Amino acid sequence: MRTVMGLMLMAGLTLPATTAAAQDAARGEQLYATQKCSMCHQIAGKGNKLSLLDDVGARLTKEQVHEWIVDPVAAAAKATSTKKPMMPKTYAKLPPADVDALVAYLMTLK
Ligand code: HEC
After folding, report:
1. From atom 36 of ligand 1, which residue's Cα is the shortest distance away?
2. What does the pLDDT look like over 25-49, one tens digit per residue?
3. Best substitution site from 87, 89, 93, 98 to test ligand 1's pocket, by max atoms within 8 Å of Cβ?
4. pLDDT (tens digit per residue) in 44-53
5. pLDDT at residue 13 above 80?
6. Which residues, 6+ apart, have CB-to-CB distance to 25 below 8 Å?
7. CATH classification of the domain holding 93
8. Which of 4, 69, 86, 94 is the most interior residue, by most CB within 10 Å?
């Protein structure tokens, strides 16, 4: 009985966090599609090969990915990126929860 309680407690403490992250990433994947990121980016061979995001979660920190989405001008300057067309600034207007979901998704790409 004690073991069962212990397991339930562990599950109660760890499951919500994992599930929330997975849900965020899943929503981020949908947003990636609806926001048409693939017009300029490629993941798993799909989209524009201008910029490949296949291992972006391994190359960048989540702070850097976040900055690319909300302030691409600053991010491009730091990365000394000269690729054109430049990333649009319009994503800064997305609800913060959507930006977080996009970041969660991109960080799963390793
Ligand atoms: C009009 C083209 C365009 C669109 C649309 C676009 N981006 Fe970008 N993005 C770029 C360019 C150009 C870069 C710089 C790539 C480089 O220099 O390697 C970039 C860089 C990035 C990077 C950093 C990549 C790296 O390898 O360091 C991330 C992350 C990113 N974009 C995410 C997104 C997301 C998420 C969306 C959709 C919400 C999006 N982009 C839509 C053009 C675009």
Report:
1. 37
2. 999 999 999 999 999 999 999 999 9
3. 87
4. 999 999 999 9
5. no
6. 101, 104, 105, 107, 108
7. 1.10.760.10
8. 69
